[in-house]
Model the fold of this input.
Amino acid sequence: MTSTALLLCGNAFAYGEAGRWSSGWGQGTSEYTAVVNEQNNLYIACNDTRKVSMTATVQGKEYGSYAGQAFTIIVDGSQYDAPYETESRVGENNFFDMWGKLRKAKSISILTADGKQLALPTKEVASVLPATNTPEFDCLMWDQ
Done:
C-alpha cells in the first residue's frame, strides 16, 4: 500500500490524540473525534448540507451511520440509542440533548448492537464540541 493510500484510509484516526477529544475541518465538514487508540474511537461528522453521521469503532469494527450495525452512547448514565438517527423530531431532540450532555460529561461510553462496550475519554470534550446555539455548530438533522 502506498503512503498516499494509507493517508486516505481510516476516517476516525486521521487526526486526534489518544485519550482526548479533537476536532478538524475539511471539504465542508466539521469532524469531532474521541480517540482511545487506533482500534477504538468515536467519529462525528457535521455539515450544513448532509445530516449528521456518527461512526463508533470498537475493537476495530465499525458501527453506526453507514456500518449496518447500531450503537448506543451512554453519557453520565443517560442512554441514547442510535443517536445519529435524526430524521424525526424525536431523533433530533435526542441528538441535541445528547450533544449538550456530552459537553459536560464525566463519563461517556459506547454499547454496540453485538454487546461490545467502550469507555471514551472526556478530556477537552467541552472545548471541542461547540454549543448548539453558536454559529460553530453546523450539525444538520435532515438531508437537504
Q: What stands out?
A: Residues 1-14 have pLDDT under 50 and may be disordered. The longest strand covers residues 29-37. The CA atoms of residues 12 and 43 lie 5 Å apart.
